[in-house]
Design brief:
single chain; binds zinc ion; about 190 residues
Length: about 190
């Protein structure tokens, strides 16, 4: 069935119509020359675990994240129901997409120290904001949700998204801050 937008997405909420053709192309262009792993990590960072509905999905308009329905998410990213199902299952279990790079010997050059420094300072910034009550990165149970910090990180520095996947950010956080904070994403 064709939606109002003319795309076979099954979306009734005009999620896709909110994106111009140019913006839709820009979304797909992000995937050019990216590995499956990088694409997985990117998509994963755009899904958020919630209560009701269980997940929220986002698509980027330039640097802004916009909530879209699951059908629109699949259509806009030219991905599949199966791939998104797998990612939400991982998110449900607070796991991250596996990083295959090491296994196949295509290891990237080591992350530059300034990237680590940026992550580190952002994490300090987030926990400070949390401590002084300027921002809440915790869920209803008061448990820190690292993914929310990561969302802010990529919101503030979208160009970092491919250098620092959610997986990298989470691993770094657990290694350097994990002893002090109980996190949802353990
Ligand atoms: Zn929709």
């Amino acid at each position: 069935m064709m939606g109002r937008s003319g795309f076979k997405s099954g979306c009734d909420m005009n999620c896709i119509l909110n994106f111009t053709k140019h913006e839709r192309v820009a979304i797909l262009r992000k995937f050019a020359n990216k590995s499956k792993d990088e694409i997985d990590n990117h998509l994963y960072s755009l899904i958020e675990k919630r209560e009701k509905p269980k997940f929220t999905y986002h698509a980027l308009k330039g640097e802004e994240r916009h909530v879209v329905c699951r059908k629109a998410f699949i259509s806009l990213h030219n991905t599949s129901t199966k791939a998104v199902y797998r990612l939400t299952k991982l998110l449900e279990k607070d796991q991250v997409p596996e990083d295959f790079r090491g296994k196949h010997g295509h290891q990237r050059s080591p992350r530059p120290q300034w990237v680590n420094d940026m992550m580190h300072h952002h994490m300090l910034y987030c926990v400070s904001l949390q401590d002084i009550g300027r921002h809440d990165f915790t869920d209803d149970a008061g448990v820190l949700v690292v993914n929310r910090m990561y969302q802010l990180f990529v919101d503030m520095s979208p160009w970092m998204e491919y250098d620092v996947s959610y997986y990298v950010y989470l691993r770094y956080f657990k290694r350097h801050f994990g002893g002090h904070y109980s996190t949802l994403d353990v």
